[in-house]
Amino acid sequence: MNIDPILFFSNPNLPEEISSSLRKIGLQVLCVPVLETNYEKHEGNVKKAFENIQKVKAIVFPSHRSVLALGRTGINVRHLKWYALRESTANVCLDILSKIPEVTVKKGLPELIDTLRNDTDLIGSQIIFLSGYRQKVTPIRQLKEFDISVRNVCCFSTSSVYKTDILKTLKGITPVACVFFNVAGVRIVCNTLKNTGWEWRDKCIFATEETVAKALREKKEIRRCDAIPQDSNLEGIKQMLQSYFRCKC
């Protein structure tokens, strides 16, 4: 069986089970980091936010980075009600903080907001929303009318990996497919590969969720997304790729 490279534009922290499962259908996963995360810069901000939480009833983890950021501080908030955006984030909560969130939302921020609105236990209380620096969408306005106060706490920031480092990683590689994990990754990769002779037409293009797919369709270099997983987690991505490439065989 020929083994073809497939690029995951993400940090190299994949479980071996994912790589080995895809290897069985002829795909070799190569992770290409495009974003660097800074937690240390915001650690003091997180600790200060949790000094006075008498009115806080819940905490929202919108990403795995927010879980890692809290885990670095050693703060114990197990008595609060936890909300996780997507199963992958909930799994990291269990792995890093040893607690399964009471509520896990699968379909994105709009569903999360609706879930918070419908939780009568939160009326008149405050929730902490752990976000990234310059995060565009937080549910402050949407929840204010329901008498739910949102404290937006910046717990990490990201920056682009140097263009030369990405190009060095990609040198000599001709992948059959690329998987994009976030909108920033779409922008960074397209800007990095601009005017390099990189050809998108001969590669399958995948996104981990609809917002990323939309960004791919809007990029003039790509203008498409071949598939997104039913569940936006590693297991869902694995199943998507297995189904897609088995059908292609």
Automatic annotation (TrEMBL):
<dbReference type="InterPro" id="IPR003754">
    <property type="entry name" value="4pyrrol_synth_uPrphyn_synth"/>
</dbReference>
<protein>
    <recommendedName>
        <fullName>Tetrapyrrole biosynthesis uroporphyrinogen III synthase domain-containing protein</fullName>
    </recommendedName>
</protein>
<dbReference type="InterPro" id="IPR036108">
    <property type="entry name" value="4pyrrol_syn_uPrphyn_synt_sf"/>
</dbReference>
<feature type="domain" description="Tetrapyrrole biosynthesis uroporphyrinogen III synthase">
    <location>
        <begin position="17"/>
        <end position="219"/>
    </location>
</feature>
<dbReference type="Pfam" id="PF02602">
    <property type="entry name" value="HEM4"/>
</dbReference>
<dbReference type="GO" id="GO:0004852">
    <property type="term" value="F:uroporphyrinogen-III synthase activity"/>
</dbReference>
<dbReference type="GO" id="GO:0033014">
    <property type="term" value="P:tetrapyrrole biosynthetic process"/>
</dbReference>
